[in-house]
Amino acid sequence: xxxxxxxDPDHSEKEDRYIAIGISIKSRxxxxxHCESEDGKLVRIISARKATKNEAKILLGx
Length: 62
Description:
Helix content is 13%, strand content 45%. A four-stranded antiparallel beta sheet has the order 1-2-3-4, with helices on one face. The protein is globular, with a radius of gyration of 12 Å. By secondary structure, the chain is mainly beta. It contains one helix and four strands; from the N terminus they run E-E-E-E-H. A hairpin with a 6-residue loop joins strand 3 (29-36) and strand 4. The longest helix is centred in the C-terminal third of the chain and has 8 residues, at 53-60.
């Protein structure tokens, strides 16, 4: 399953924030915004939703 994770510098003033775009087991393209603790042991989900058509194109490289 394809997955892309990118750093989100526009919203990362106090913590490192990432945007993950991938495909679920039900073939839905999803976006998850998350951050990780400094030791990497904790992940906080900020947002999870169905990807827009433009975001899906990013994942597919179109």
